[in-house]
Design brief:
231 residues, eleven-stranded antiparallel β-sheet, globular
C-alpha cells in the first residue's frame, strides 16, 4: 500500500544556501513513514508493544528541494523478511522526482528491548510494492583508509524521545566534516550499528579525498558507517 503526504519546506529545514538539509530530508521521510505506520497498524493489537527503528538509509538525490517548495513524499513497503522491512520514499515536486530513499527498518519489542520477528499481520497490512532500487547497501563498499578524524560535540538538543541521537542528526555530524557543498551530493548511504548516547565520547574517522567515507566510533567500537557520493 502506498501513502502520500505533503510538506512545505520551511526556512529552518534548509542550509545557508536555501536547500533542504540532508537531516531534514531524512526527518521528513521518517515522518511520512511514521504517519503510514499509525494508519496501517491501528488494528494490530500488539503494535502498541513494538516500535520501528532504522537500520540503514540509501538516499539517491536528483535535486534537493529549496525553501518554500511544497513536496509530496510517497511511502510504501517493498519487502519484509523475518526481521527487516524495506520501506521506500519518493520525494516529488510538481511531478518531478527529486529524491528516493530505501530504508531498512527493524521491529523492536518494548518488553524484550530487542529486534523481533515481524508478525504476519504486519506483512498483510503493508503489502509489497515494486522496488525502485536495484540493490541494497553493501557495507563492504564503505571500506576506506581513513586519513582524518575529529571528536564529536554532542548537544542535549540532539537527543530524541528514545534517549539517543536521532538517525537524522547523524547527517549533521557528517555535514560538519564535508568540504563539498550539500547540493553536490548525488547519493548518501549510512548504516546504524549502535546507538549514540549523550554522554558518549565519540569520534568520526573519515576520508574526503574524492567522495566522503566515514565511520563513527566509540572506544574503537563502530557505531555507524557510510559514504557520501558527489555529482
Amino acid at each position: 500500500m502506498k501513502s502520500s503526504y505533503k510538506f512545505k519546506i520551511n526556512y529552518y529545514d534548509c542550509d545557508k544556501n536555501g536547500y533542504l538539509s540532508l537531516r531534514s530530508l531524512v526527518a521528513l521521510s521518517i515522518e511520512a513513514s511514521s504517519r503510514q505506520s499509525s494508519l496501517l497498524e491501528k488494528n494490530i493489537n500488539e503494535s502498541k508493544n513494538n516500535f520501528w527503528i532504522v537500520y540503514s538509509h540509501n538516499i539517491s538525490i536528483n535535486k534537493l528541494p529549496k525553501m518554500n517548495d511544497e513536496i509530496t513524499i510517497t511511502t510504501y513497503c517493498s519487502g519484509m523478511n523475518r526481521f527487516y522491512a524495506d520501506r521506500e520514499m519518493i520525494i516529488e515536486n510538481d511531478g518531478d522526482v527529486l529524491a528516493k530513499i530505501l530504508s531498512e527498518f527493524l521491529l523492536i519489542s518494548k518488553i524484550k528491548k530487542r529486534p523481533i520477528k515481524i508478525p504476519e499481520e504486519y506483512k498483510k497490512v503493508y503489502g509489497k510494492e515494486k522496488s525502485l532500487f536495484d540493490k541494497k547497501i553493501n557495507e563492504k563498499e564503505f571500506e576506506k583508509n581513513y586519513n582524518k578524524n575529529s571528536k564529536l560535540i554532542l548537544r542535549k538538543s540532539d537527543i530524541d524521545i528514545n534517549g539517543h541521537i536521532s538517525n537524522a542528526q547523524y547527517f549533521d555530524i557528517v555535514r560538519e566534516n564535508m568540504k563539498r557543498k550539500q547540493e553536490e551530493i548525488k547519493q548518501a548511504q549510512i548504516i546504524y550499528k549502535n546507538q549514540i548516547l549523550y554522554d558518549d565520547e565519540v569520534y568520526i574517522n573519515y576520508n574526503d579525498d574524492d567522495n566522503f567515507y566515514f565511520e563513527i566510533v566509540k572506544d574503537k567500537k563502530i557505531l555507524s558507517k557510510g559514504r557520501i557520493i558527489y555529482v
